[in-house]
Amino acid sequence: MRFRKISLPFLMLALGLNLAYAKKEPKYEKAHQLTPEQAALVEKAIAREKVVVKNIQERTPLVETYIQEMRPDQKLYQVPTGDTYMLTRIDFRKTFTNKPYAARSEKKQGFFKGSMSALSNIGKALHLDKESYNVEGFSQMMFLDPSGFDQQHYVFSYVRREFLGSVRTWEFDVQPKVKGVGRFYGRIWIEDQDGNVVRFNGTYTENAGEDNNKEYFHFDSWRMNMQPDLWLPVAIYVEESQRIEGGKQVGLRAQTHFWGYSLTLPTRDSENVSVQVEGAVDQSADSQDVSPLQATRQWVSQAENNVIDRLVQAGLLAPPSDFDKTLEQVVVNLSVPNNLNFPDPVHCRILLTTTVEATTIGNTILLSKGLIDTLPRNEEAIAGVVAFELAHVALGHHIDTRYAFNDRLLFPDESSFQSIKMNHSDADNADAAKHAQDYLQNSMYKDKLANAGLYLVQLQERGKVLKQLNTPKLGDSMLKTDGTPWMADLAKSAPKLNQDDTTQIAALPLGSWLKTDPWDDKQHMLNAKIFAPMNARDKMPFEVTPIYFKLQRYEDAQKAPAGTSPTGAPAPATPAPGNN
């Protein structure tokens, strides 16, 4: 058999034709034709998506986005180099102004066709508006495509069936087949009972067949069955690890959380609320006189109750939870050996912000969810931060009593951060830190204070770059303005940080302790198995991590044993800190 030589020009021509043909190949894989059953489920999902969009438009949830810029690290894989925090209350019907709720402007257009003009001014009130990130861009990831999610605009390919928790889902790959700004490209999970999309993972694109991700991030968006026949967005994880900006490889991780779905907007600026107390008996004839000291304490308590109620109404403070009892037991463990005989019990509550902060309102200690979530799982670490706030209570560093007049708290929710002053002065913090150190030395935690101080050392180390995480929105930071801890003596008792020591857990990633019910804002302990880190990369102190939910249907959650949250996260009646 004879073989002819192929000339070089002919070879180059052939290669050129092949390359030209390859360039014309579509980006997306050819979709497989759906079976009648699969096509019916897709049509049901398309119809249900319109219902979800309508339900979202009728709600006014709070939206919190926390972003960490990341850079590659040979030992830890990635480390944070900066952060951004945004908190917004979103309303698709009306928009917030300084006093009333004004009608939405119809002039603005875009991805939401004007509805995003309903974003509140909470972010501006906190001075968090940053040009490099757009809160609208992170909020839009709660939607697949609010105006064009159908088979005229998208192609669907069946993948497989999968359980997300106890919810059986069907997976489909989705790709746009027509041009359009913000078309979704990725994978969706459809629950097989009613056809709701419960998760979608991918990105947005402008033109079908073109890889244009310069303006869009990749994200993983989750929904939860919060009420009968009602699935709503609960959290979104964003990650980009291979972006090139300015000739440097950069990345980011971000979490967006939604809560406060059952909150309702006030219909007018001044709104009186009447509360009836069942079983109240008039005993005025038998009451004793009130001393000036008692009257003063009652006045402070009235201001405290007014502020707490207002923060709950605004969706910034969680209702009382079982986890509060854990914190209050630590208060008792500190109070008894130090002979702190408070006239009224000291209570603890959880601020719903991711920022690491704490404060006091009268006899109530407020610790942020971000602070609790990053504490290592030992009781002495909790005692370290509780002691600092307990000292404020003992020293009488109470909230401004002007809030005893309820009319001072009649302002729009987005003004809460500007109108309510809850932070302490530097002098008060320095005094409280000194007394807190004494409380700890006299307590059952005195032999384990090195563990408590380790958290502050890690916070100081990461605080150099995670400045937004350590910038309080309502209360006090654990760090001074120079970046050193207020509880400096406690930090000095800690051993040196050792990344390679897997037994040394200085701080945990965000989201390690608590779970927020997005419907009613209640806090529940995570029912997650604790795994010991195998290497330095597993520690991730104060870092943003991926999100994964064990989904549960609302009806199944209602049949669960007492003490289980509607979202499926068990909340033990008497939770206690464990060990890593």
Keywords:
single chain; 580 residues; alpha+beta; nine-stranded antiparallel beta sheet; three-stranded mixed beta sheet; 13 helices; 26% helix; globular; disordered N terminus; disordered C terminus
SSE blueprint:
Elements: H1 8-24, H2 36-57, E1 62-73, E2 77-89, E3 94-96, E4 101-103, H3 122-125, H4 135-139, E5 154-164, E6 167-176, E7 183-191, E8 197-205, E9 219-227, E10 230-245, E11 248-259, H5 292-313, H6 322-335, E12 347-351, E13 358-361, E14 364-368, H7 369-374, H8 379-394, H9 416-419, H10 426-441, H11 449-463, H12 488-492, E15 514-516, E16 523-525, H13 554-558
Parallel strand pairs: 12-14
Antiparallel strand pairs: 1-2, 1-11, 3-4, 5-6, 6-7, 7-8, 8-9, 9-10, 10-11, 13-14, 15-16
Helix pairs in contact: 6-8, 8-10, 8-11
Can you describe this structure?
With 580 residues, the protein is an alpha+beta fold. The protein has 13 helices and 16 strands. It has a nine-stranded antiparallel beta sheet. A three-stranded mixed beta sheet has the order 12-14-13. The protein starts with 7 loop residues before the first helix and ends in a 22-residue tail after the last helix.
Write the element-wise H/E pattern from the N-terminal end onward: HHEEEEHHEEEEEEEHHEEEHHHHHHEEH
Query: Could you describe the largest sheet, including whether it forms a barrel?
Result: 9 strands, antiparallel
Give the overall shape: globular
Strand element count: 16
Look at the helices and sheets and give the structural class.
Answer: alpha+beta
- Percentage of residues assigned to helices: 25-40%
The number of helices is: 13
Q: What's the gyration radius in Å?
A: 27 Å
Strand order of the largest sheet: 2-1-11-10-9-8-7-6-5
Mean pLDDT across every amino acid position? 78
Q: What proportion of the residues form beta strands (DSSP E)?
A: 15-25%
Instruction: Report how far the terminal alpha carbons are from each other.
Output: 73 Å
Q: Outline the low-pLDDT stretches.
A: 1-26, 94-131, 265-284, 565-580
